[in-house]
Specification:
Elements: H1 11-17, E1 20-26, E2 30-33, E3 38-41, E4 45-56, E5 78-83, E6 95-100, E7 111-114, E8 127-133, H2 139-144
Antiparallel strand pairs: 1-4, 1-6, 2-3, 4-5, 5-8, 6-7, 7-8
Length: 154
């Protein structure tokens, strides 16, 4: 009879893959700004923070639908989040961001939306969570773009 598989043997490999600090959060409730009288986004509610890795699961896709026809909310920019198994199972629409990027600094300040519950299975090595990127421009471009002052011609 063979001995059971020891997943502990994979730990040194995973420690070299799960090297970024990732954060799962929900946007905070709206807060009234008494000076302006308008509601503004409140602080995010942090659900979990720990080591993980973000991988692209292919290039941008194309979602087609017929007018008036229901279709599943498919993503155009699918990513995978890998975390240790002690990370919580993420719920749909939880947000994810990379707080510390060990290798690729392009991951910093980007935000993804969890598409469905994290995968859970009998023989699991890491927790896999499918995500869709919601960041619309690179963090560098966001800093570089400054609105021009508009002076009326009169």
């Amino acid at each position: 009879m063979s001995s059971p598989i020891s997943l502990a043997a994979l730990e040194p490999v995973l420690k070299r893959i799960l090297v970024d600090t990732v954060q799962m959060f929900r946007p905070g409730p709206q807060v009234l700004n008494e000076a302006t009288g308008e509601y503004e986004p409140g602080p995010d509610v942090i659900l979990w923070e720990g080591l993980g890795a973000v991988f692209s699961a292919g290039g941008p896709g194309m979602v087609m639908s017929l007018a008036g026809q229901a279709y599943q909310d498919d993503t155009r920019n699918r990513y995978q989040l890998l975390t240790w198994l002690d990370a919580p199972v993420a719920s749909r629409d939880v947000r994810v961001r990379v707080r510390t990027a060990t290798v690729d600094q392009g991951l910093l300040n980007r935000v993804w939306r969890v598409l469905d519950l994290s995968q859970a299975q009998t023989l699991a090595i890491v927790r896999t969570t499918w995500m869709d990127e919601v960041t619309q421009q690179s963090p560098q471009a966001a800093k570089a773009v400054q609105p021009e002052a508009h002076t009326p011609p009169f």
